[in-house]
Amino acid sequence: xxxxxxxxxxxxxxxxxxxxxxxxxxxxxxxxxxxxxxxxxxxxxxxxxxxxxxxxxxxxxxxxxxxxxxxxxxxxxxxxxxxxxxxxxxxxxxxxxxxxxxxxxxxxxxxxxxxxxxxxxxxxxxxxxxxxxxxxxxxxxxxxxxxxxxxxxxxxxxxxxxxxxxxxxxxxxxxxxxxxxxxxxxxxxxxxxxxxxxxxxxxxxxxxxxxxxxxxxxxxxxxxxxxxxxxxxxxxxxxxxxxxxxxxxxxxxxxxxxxxxxxxxxxxxxxxxxxxxxxxxxxxxxxxxxxxxxxxxxxxxxxxxxxxxxxxxxxxxxxxxxxxxxxxxxxxxxxxxxxxxxxxxxxxxxxxxxxxxxxxxxxxxxxxxxxxxxxxxxxxxxxxxxxxxxxxxxxxxxxxxxxxxxxxxxxxxxxxxxxxxxxxxxxxxxxxxxxxxxxxxxxxxxxxxxxxxxxxxxxxxxxxxxxxxxxxxxxx
Amino acid sequence: xxxxxxxxxxxxxxxxxxxxxxxxxxxxxxxxxxxxxxxxxxxxxxxxxxxxxxxxxxxxxxxxxxxxxxxxxxxxxxxxxxxxxxxxxxxxxxxxxxxxxxxxxxxxxxxxxxxxxxxxxxxxxxxxxxxxxxxxxxxxxxxxxxxxxxxxxxxxxxxxxxxxxxxxxxxxxxxxxxxxxxxxxxxxxxxxxxxxxxxxxxxxxxxxxxxxxxxxxxxxxxxxxxxxxxxxxxxxxxxxxxxxxxxxxxxxxxxxxxxxxxxxxxxxxxxxxxxxxxxxxxxxxxxxxxxxxxxxxxxxxxxxxxxxxxxxxxxxxxxxxxxxxxxxxxxxxxxxxxxxxxxxxxxxxxxxxxxxxxxxxxxxxxxxxxxxxxxxxxxxxxxxxxxxxxxxxxxxxxxxxxxxxxxxxxxxxxxxxxxxxxxxxxxxxxxxxxxxxxxxxxxxxxxxxxxxxxxxxxxxx
Lengths: 476, 461
Hints:
heterodimer; A: alpha+beta; PmbA/TldD fold; about 40% strand; globular; B: alpha+beta; 2 domains; 5-stranded mixed β-barrel; disordered N terminus
């Protein structure tokens, strides 16, 4: 079905209604207004202690109305899509401005449609029993990996988000965004005093067939169980500054925290980012080229259009170490006079859009991963991470290694316990001395939080060597 | 200034009550053997004033409905924001369909009828003043907080704004055992996030806030702004220190997160899975003798207070750790059955999913010394004011977090430090809480005074 027609049919909307709502939103003289209609269905099924203890499904729908006046934003939303409720919300948002109504809105230009995520069986429509089978297989395979695996929780969650965005600048964009994810958490127990945990997962803007053919429950099960078993033998992580080698894929969370957030245009417009004023300056070694790319097919962080209706793109953030650009939305691009990179995203119709990342990764270099490990005398090889966080203003960032090993005399040796790595965003990448030829994107599990809003994102990185970063372990 | 005058909210409550009981009735008619519905509505307001100008203004209301059904020992959940007839029919039929494919779980089910109820005390959770404050005055709170921060010192040169948030909401819970309960809550907060720049161009940001259920108990916008500026200024010129092992004093803003790990450790869900370092430790020493930790869902005006939990069981006061001894886990109906115990009235749920475990007001009992005395007792050590990120493993207790704060030399706070980590193991850390100060304050539902922990590794250069 045509995406636009879905909203027109379900909520009895017409183009005239949309024009009228926008006019109401601009009735107090705002510069720009937009309407964001969202209809989200989701299902979740999980296997816990080898039982399907529960299953869940839900629907969330509503409309958010934004009015911009200069640097000011007014916002209101409603989950009741009757005309009088939308008009009430439009008038509430309109109050951010205080001038006579400016212009009527007439006519929209529909963005040409592309489709980064052609999905055969869109999430929520897929057969429940097929999802059930996935979690049962995951549970079984995790337990089969090793008798010391004692607890397993496996879940499959999918959603289908339909959006319609119309703006007073003539924007009319629609999209239907599937998102699926499998997650496994397990606990291994070797003795009363020796337990450990492991987790894995993945997915993307894919249908259920992805988990039946490409990345199977057994694949994720093996990964979760492997991590838990390895951690049983982990020793104390080292403490202090040392050489750190990051494995390929999910360790790209380094880029997300260390530089990605700091390059979001809103922070730079307000000069609250440690990266403010560093455009065209060196912020990384010349081996580092980093992009944010919302156009990769089927990736978790990809979208055809952002939540302001602008097409996403591949934006170069850092080219051979030089800072080249920011991630922008409509508001910041207008106020800063820079181009809109299609990074205006929001969690839902209840939220104001702002610049956010999509898929952020470093381009492959020329070093072989083996040479990189071999070059380290004493250091840490970190291959899996939990979350991370950054203080935008002073640039300090952390990310937490959940699977890491000591490197001694050029060889990977003992596994170590979880440890936080901490560094300084504007200079950590200047210490990248080797970049591998093995770029890998993550499995599709990332969720980024900013100002209380969560959006799905991706990261990626080849194997890299950072000459010095502080590792927060306990061993001397 | 209490609820009885609020005609509008009273009316919406009875509408919610009607919807929740109707959904339970429909679920039973459709084949459920037990059902439970939660209905919520609320309004939210938030504004940010940055550099004296209103930056954002957001105002809205919303409502939503969640349903949990059982068919025998099989369970399922659905939720919706669509209150139309079709929306509710879809909610009910969807739940019934899902419950036909889930597994028989012998431990599933609603609480016993005899366990249901609500505490009768007035918990002071709702104040009309939050709802009725005009928008202009709400904006003024945000503006005054920011202005106070900006005016404290010339080095405060930028700002992430002053903000004011207000929210009111009603919640109704109904189940097929005849329980119907409802309550209203209000919340308001004022905050400031100033940015200071030093002579070398180094930037630091910090924040401060006050929150309450009524404007009457909110700290003044000026005091919030001034404290935010003070906390920001003391970070200027921060440096890294060498890796070391020293006594660490935790400011209440961070000590509460350490105490929150006691909640996570005592969470019945982690206990029955063996996923907690407290599993099997009931009656044993898990912390130093000066450590007493309480969960109390019945405190008047508390951020974690409610008359009943998310399964309709009255909330209560539970001593979790008594002078270092683990006295109780925190349980809902399911985890209590798994462990052969009784629920502690700690069921917690959003709209979607099975009830989990939630804290009421969870806190560490204060000690006898002032925070200043704790600092004065340290020859060389670290005073932590902020955590960044988290690598905390509740299965093993391994603990490692990014931190910043101030260095203590000869009993006095000296220069600021940053880009360091604090690491240890929670099992040891609770045993090594050597001092607890008197300054217990509730700024959220989890609270702890300033405290000192010995034996931690501080990693830096």
